[in-house]
Write a structure and sequence with these properties.
- The protein is of the alpha/beta class.
- 25% of the residues lie in helices and 12% in strands.
- The protein has nine helices and nine strands.
- The strands form two sheets. It has a seven-stranded mixed sheet. It has a two-stranded antiparallel sheet with strand order 4-5.
- β6, α5 and β7 form a beta-alpha-beta unit.
- α2 runs parallel beside α4 and α6 packs across α7.
């Protein structure tokens, strides 16, 4: 069953974290996950006509909000080859592209940043696109230190994944990692955007949860049809709605440039142009942006952990303005 709501989620940028970086379909998408109240969306700030010297503002209950930390994967071999020659994206040699040595340097820099700013202790869940470059990035940025033999914990990533010459990465004291098809890159045509079979990934990333991916093989990618931009945007909206159903309040998402750009393009249309730009511009490799997503349509079912009902113990507490309306004669107010 497909649900809809007149109040789709909103997305609001929080201060943007930018580590040092280097510059660098089927006609109808059918995700393997159930469709969860898909809808189009705009960012609710205030109308442009209301904006003068005072910035537009929005006010929402805290328990209807989540903080999401959006990350594009670090530099992959396809980024390097595609920069030289766009037709290289059609090369089978770039199948499920892995990170470059420079990409791993970008990962190390972002890992240091999320540690230094305290973000690593706040994230409760890491959602990752099930491709090699995104899972390498997610493990390197949000994973623990190098895995050591004798530690009784499943590694997030084993050693030398994608010929990286990197040591294994520990999952000790790290949040859960969950692979999800909804946040994959444009589907189709480009071999770099085709994933391997899940049974090939499991031994490489033992601590990543692949349980929400129903098909072992990549049944979504086709060799002759590239997913349309509007279909990527629609898939992005379904992904945002799915995030609203999660119980976690701080979620990291490691995905791709095309997916993030088109998924965010529906947001911020009634905000100041600079706010719209903060939300929607293209991501650099290994860039991190933090946003607040607001569930305005009651998609999720979270209850507040900080609200307090009052009247404990019970007592008379009629506000004076309400009392004035309720007893106009006693207050000398004419009927």
């Amino acid at each position: 069953m497909t649900f809809s709501t007149p109040f789709p989620p909103s997305l609001i940028p929080t201060p943007i974290f930018k580590p040092a970086t280097t510059a660098a379909s089927p006609s109808s998408y059918s995700p393997l996950l159930p469709q969860i109240r898909p809808s189009s969306s705009v960012l609710r700030c205030s109308s442009i006509s209301d904006m003068d010297a005072t910035a537009g503002q929005g006010l929402y209950p805290l328990h209807r909000c989540k903080t999401i930390h959006l990350v594009r994967h670090a530099q992959g071999i396809h980024n390097v080859e595609g920069e030289k020659d766009h037709s290289a994206y059609l090369s089978q040699e770039l199948f499920d592209a892995h990170l470059t040595p420079l990409g791993w340097q970008q990962v190390d820099n972002l890992h240091k940043h999320v540690q230094a700013c305290g973000l690593s202790k706040k994230v409760e869940l890491v959602v990752v696109s099930p491709l090699l470059r995104t899972m390498q990035t997610a493990a390197g940025v949000f994973g623990g230190e190098s895995y050591k033999d004798g530690i009784d914990v499943t590694p997030l990533m084993v050693a030398n994944v994608g010929n990286s010459e990197r040591p294994a990465i520990s999952s000790l004291n790290r949040p859960p990692f969950l692979a999800l098809e909804l946040c994959r890159e444009h589907l189709g045509v480009h071999p770099c955007d085709k994933r391997r079979s899940i049974h090939e990934y499991r031994p490489l990333f033992p601590a990543i949860d692949f349980s929400l991916i129903e098909s072992d093989d990549d049944v979504l990618w086709t060799a002759d049809v590239r997913e349309k931009n509007e279909d990527v945007a629609s898939r992005g909206m379904k992904f945002m709605n799915w995030l609203c159903t999660r119980k976690e309040k701080e979620i990291a998402v490691v995905s791709h440039s095309g997916f993030l750009f088109h998924a965010l393009s529906a947001f911020g249309n009634d905000c100041h142009p600079l706010v719209k730009s903060e939300i929607c511009k293209h991501f650099a490799n290994c860039e991190l942006r933090s946003m607040v997503i607001v569930d305005r349509g009651m998609i999720g079912s979270d209850s507040s952990t900080t609200n307090y009902p009052g009247k404990i113990p019970h007592g008379l507490d009629l506000p004076s303005d309400v009392a004035n309306d309720k007893h106009p004669k006693e207050k000398g107010v004419p009927n």
